[in-house]
Amino acid sequence: MPRTDGRLLALDLGTSSARALVLSAADASPIPGALARHKVSARYGAAGEATLDLHDYVEGLLGCLDELQAGGHLEGITDIVMSSQWHSIVALDNRDRPLTPVIPWVDTRSVEPKLGADFDEHAFHARTGAWLHRLYWTRRIPWLMSEVQADSFAGLPDLVLERLTGARVTSVSIASGTGTLDLARGVYDEEALEIAGVKPDRLPSIVPTGWTGSLSSEFERRWPGLVGVPVHPPTGDGAASNVGTGGYDETTAAVTVGTSAAVRVVHPIDNAPELPWELWRYRVDDKRAVTGMAFSAAGNLHAWLTGVLQLDKEHQEPTGVEIGSSRVIAVPFQAGTRPPETVPSGSGLYFGLSFDDTGADLLAASLQGASLEVDRGLRMLDGLFGRQLSVVLGGGGIDASAWWRRCLTATFARPTTVCAEAEVGARGAAAVALGLSPDPGGEHLRPVDAEVNRVAALRPRYSALRELAVKASKELG
User: Coiled-coil ranges per the record (predicted)?
Assistant: First the structure.
């Protein structure tokens, strides 16, 4: 039975911050004031580099725990849970010393895979839930081996867990984000490892969801309140966010909007529906998978445009623009597309501009374009699961913009529920580890008929312009 007393320590390993926060064990809600954050800044380069300093990241996270202890927040902790960014990788030498910084998903460096004539990319995708894309270890590892004399490889969450407990292990959820997991069996996929050029003993061992470790003696002395507290394996941030938002079964799609956006459905791994080529699939835990589509432009698009237009806080929502009414159409490809599409970054498009248009019109068009992108994924998931899915909305972008919440609801043409809790990743990691089923608990939105009709009229124009943008990106290189 899930615990209903005590408190939980959640570690959230993001790309822009590492955080530690304390949650109630009853419903995984945050304890007010019990949050510490270490800001993380990636280092970018002209050749596609995007790296995180591993030492700074880990020491910053440990400092967050020191801060919580100083505030008296590490007493009464019953479990330590973790959510983490997917897809990161670090190359290690034969003494387990890092040879590279952390390479997160935004880094574009990789090499083309060497494939046999009998390679079946659709069968590979159906089995692993991934494509042979630079996001995944199938292409990262051969590139790293061409750069350094690596003996083994691990992801950021694996190395954080090892630093805390001394155990080099990973979860089935984190392993699925590497693109090297056989989803049905929950073990490394032989063909994926052959393409990557590694044996399974050079990667972290996969442990079951119920596995727990304990803090090393170093950290038990540093944080006496955590002596003997079990440490659970990490959950991938997308899976954790889905569960934490309230989308934890096959009747509900969760739409999360942060820096990027995604729409996903959690469902049993047994008898899972056949995976369409356009969607990815990862694991939540030993029994569940998550299927969905991700989008590169969301909160980052809003932040970029409000900065470019120099909009003050009062004008960072297009409140004067009716949803679906703007003459301007925006295709939000500023950061490109996720696989299997291959639209590169720098492909954003605005069409229909006139001298009458304002910053609010441009902002409304951008948020509408992002909403239509998410809607494409939602409609595919409706078809996959044979029903019109219920929708829950969550994430920082959702929390920050009432206009965007209404726009998404009108674009989906169905009621939505807004998750009241902003900390969906930490909450979801706790729910996965301890078997909780959190309720979204927020406002319920109903679509406005006039807005739904305007978006429906806009959709074919948007789709036609989107096709032109995809074609132009290929032709212009």
Answer: none
Q: In this model, does residue 148 exceed pLDDT 50?
A: yes
Contact 384, 276 (CB under 8 A): yes
Q: Residue 477: what pLDDT?
A: 63
Q: Which residue has the tokens 């969801």?
A: 209
CA distance 472 to 476: 6
Long-range Cβ contacts of 317-321 (<8 Å, 24+ apart): 317/363, 317/401, 317/402, 317/403, 317/404, 318/360, 318/361, 318/363, 318/364, 318/367, 318/403, 319/360, 319/403, 320/360, 321/360, 321/361, 321/363, 321/364
The crossing angle, in degrees rounded to 10, of helices 402-412 and 449-476 is: 90
Q: What fold does the segment set 247-418+447-476 form as a domain?
A: Nucleotidyltransferase; domain 5 (3.30.420)
Residue-level length of the chain = 477
CATH of range 7-237; options 3.30.420.40, 1.10.760.10, 1.20.272.10, 3.40.50.1460: 3.30.420.40
Domain ranges for the chain, please list them.
Answer: 7-237, 247-418+447-476
Q: Helix, strand, coil: what percent of the chain each, to 5? A: 35, 20, 40
Tell me phi and psi for residue 265, to 5 degrees. -130, 130
Do 444 and 391 form a contact (C-beta atoms < 8 A)? no
314 pLDDT band (50/70/90 cuts)? confident
For the record, the structure tokens of 263 come out as 């729409």
Q: How confident is the model at residue 345 (pLDDT cuts 50, 70, 90)?
A: confident
Task: Select the more confidently predicted residue: 409 or 325.
Answer: 409
| 329: nearest Cα among 438, 210, 205, 469 | 469
Residue 461 is which amino acid? R
Q: What is the pTM of this model?
A: 0.93
**Does the pLDDT value for residue 1 go beyond 80?**
no
* Tokens at 269, concatenated: 């791994």
The average pLDDT across 334-355 equals: 92
Q: Report pLDDT digits (tens) over 66-119.
A: 999 999 999 999 999 999 999 999 999 999 999 999 999 889 899 999 898 999
